[in-house]
Design goal:
257 residues; alpha+beta; 7-stranded mixed sheet; 3-stranded antiparallel sheet; 41% helix
Length: 257
Amino acid sequence: GPLAPNAEHCSNLGGALQRIARFLARPLVVAPHNPATGATLVAEGCAKLQWKTYLPATVVIDLACGETELRSRLHPKWRNQLSKAERSGITIQDLNLATDSLKQVSDIMTSEARLLGFQAPSRSELRALADAFGADLAVHTARLEGVSSPIAAAVVLYGAGEALLFALPTSAEHKGTNAANLVLFHAMLEAQRRSVNRFDLGGIDRNATPGVTHFKQRTGGLSVAYPGAFLTVPGPKVFHTVARVSIRLARRRRQTR
């Protein structure tokens, strides 16, 4: 999850992580989204690990502009899909997971997870996110007249300087409605309303999910490689080597099971 809203708030982040590691009495592995955070962690004594994070890169949208310019940056095909969705009668309803029912959001995420072949977060995990972040975690849903459940949703965590797209599911039977374009663009405008300047689209992997990668890259954002994974330990730096070996052995044991 977010460790700091932006690079300016990363002062002594390595020291804070080491205190957490001491409290837990075990090594701590951190995989930040922001390259600046990675550089800060190395400068403050954390060791960079040689294995990659769960996703190689992300797409970050610069929101320091007006709505007209934001639209003009969209890929022509993406912009046309957005216009079609706006004319189709799809409406947007904003939910707060802390107060609204989780069932509809959970159902649509489970539906897309089955389609893409991954496991969706459970209702209890969504509830934990809602309890942790409160009003900063918002759900924007796309509704179609005559359909009782949302046809698409954007689950977004709004920070002080950056928004993070947690999920963007669309129901399998409504993939051709372009509702995902509409609900994501609505989230961009909401981020601007909250004075957020950067929107992280939550990661891309060209090999594993080429369609999702293509969709996110056409938003006019900048592709940014994740900086990697970093290790901090609850003690002197000499323990970095011990922790590295322990992690490598644990990964090998999992692979041979």
